[in-house]
Amino acid sequence: MLSVAFSIGVLLALASGTATHSCVAPHHLVSKMLQRLEDSIKKDEPPNPSVLLAMNLVGATNSDNHKWLLQKIQEEAVRKAQEGVTSGEVALDVLALLSSCQNPQQVQALGHTINLLSILQQKMDEEMASLELDGVPKTTLFSVSLDTLSLCLVRMGGYQEASVVLAKQVLNPESHLSVDTRAVAVLALRCTYGRTELGDLRDLLREALSTVANDFLDQQEKGDGVIGNIYSMGLAMQALVATRKFYSPRKWDCAQAFSVVARHDYQLPMAIAQVLPALVGRSYLEATDLDCSSSRGVSPSLPLSPKLGTTRVHQPTPITVHYSIINRLQGKHFSYSIRVEVPHGSTLLKVLQVAEEKEPHRFSFQLEQTSWGLMVVSIHGLTASVDDRTYWQFLSGGDALQEGVATYKPRDGEHIKAVFSTY
Ligand code: B12
């Protein structure tokens, strides 16, 4: 069993309910989520910087797991610096290291020392050049927001220009940015707002921050507590934690948002890592505000709430799922359909596997391990491409699925489509 420990500050805040902004979720919820996050750390899987960042933000810094994760992230950062890495990945590593009181300019591992900030700066320059040239970033605006936030926290150049671009994007209704992307953009803009004296820039940032924050509050009011979907709640709540003065005198009903989170039984480590900081009234913005003194981590373990039973009764009855793969975007167009039978309670991945077994020449596919789990990167020999901004989108009827193939469980008779699309 892994130990769950909070730093004294957070512990006191939780106990008294008087954290910085008095918006703190019930102790048993935080404790359960943190335990799940710690249990998700597997020594044979790639280390996840978002998990370390979340543990640091809730003050759970005192376990062997924490030490192991920090070391692996440093090693992985050095390895990736040689092999190739995206701007967003570097930004997440920087946030994880900063929140662990480590200097990202001198990451030592595997006999090398690298400067992650100069790598980030260079990646950010590439993103900005692509935005200027093509109107779209090299990767995504989500990653550009992470980059901007990280550079702003360490006050390194480039973040003000990027903030202007992000603010204009979030204010432009044509941009159709997801809640997740707008939430991270808000964290970046909030950081820049606190670090600039330029009047025009502050006005633009204030407008962007207040527009997004108020839209999130509207969505929560209209959507029974949900902002976007259940998996965007974490980042949206972090954005609301960070922007209080931009929606004041309006109040955020954080208790309602927390009860939405409590009702959903989050299992995915990434989802938990994005939700957890907000449950203790914190956001990624505070990655550099943590107590780095030696007393940090001297902390009592909290009693854990009893683990909920996770065994599910699997019914032997098979279900039938209609599965189609469609490419009307690139090269030779195709559209194939198949009906497959899988045991009740199977994931969509099982449907893809049975389809491939039945007709391998049509329904072959490939997966890639990512921070959110297994992503389908290729079907019928057609592979998603970062350069072309293409991916395999999964839909049920006309609606995009809100989960990946390894967790989504189709119903009997459901029609799932995989459509080659652009983002
Ligand atoms: C950008 C993005 C995408 C882009 C990634 C493009 C790219 N090359 O960068 C695209 C458009 C391809 C995408 C696709 C999908 N996405 Co998406 N995506 C995001 C977003 C907004 C940011 C992720 C990111 O860039 N992180 C920063 C980088 C630095 O970290 P990273 O670990 O390297 O990021 C990688 C993974 O996040 C991965 N990824 C992105 N989405 C998904 C979804 C799944 C299920 C998996 C396994 C991996 C994965 O792609 C990133 C780049 O390699 C997140 C929002 C969030 N809250 O995190 C949603 C999010 C992760 N996506 C989500 C979903 C549902 C999907 C789809 C299943 C949608 C669909 N109906 O088809 C598909 C995946 C289908 C498949 N082929 O398996 C959900 C996942 C929820 C869950 N329970 O798993 C999120 C949380 C959004 C949400 N609130 O609903 N996504």
Can you put this structure into words, describing what you see?
The protein has 423 residues and is an alpha+beta fold. The protein folds into 2 domains: 8-288, Glycosyltransferase, CATH 1.50.10.20; 318-422, Beta Complex (Ferric Hydroxamate Uptake Protein, Chain A, domain 1), CATH 2.170.130. Helices cover 47% and strands 14% of the residues. It contains 16 helices and 10 strands. A 5-stranded mixed sheet has the order 4-3-10-8-9, with helices on one face. Helix 7 (141-153) runs parallel beside helix 9 (179-193). The longest helix has 24 residues, at 199-222. It is globular, with a radius of gyration of 22 Å. The protein starts with 7 loop residues before the first helix and ends with a strand. Mean pLDDT is 91; it is low at 1-9, 15-20 and 294-314. Bound molecules: cobalamin. Cobalamin is lined by residues 86, 88-89, 92, 139-140, 142-143, 178, 180-181, 228-229, 231-232, 235, 268, 274, 370-376, 386, 391-394, 400-405, 407, 423. Residues 86, 88-89, 92, 139-140, 142-143, 178, 180-181, 228-229, 231-232, 235, 268, 274, 370-376, 386, 391-394, 400-405, 407, 423 line the site of cobalamin.
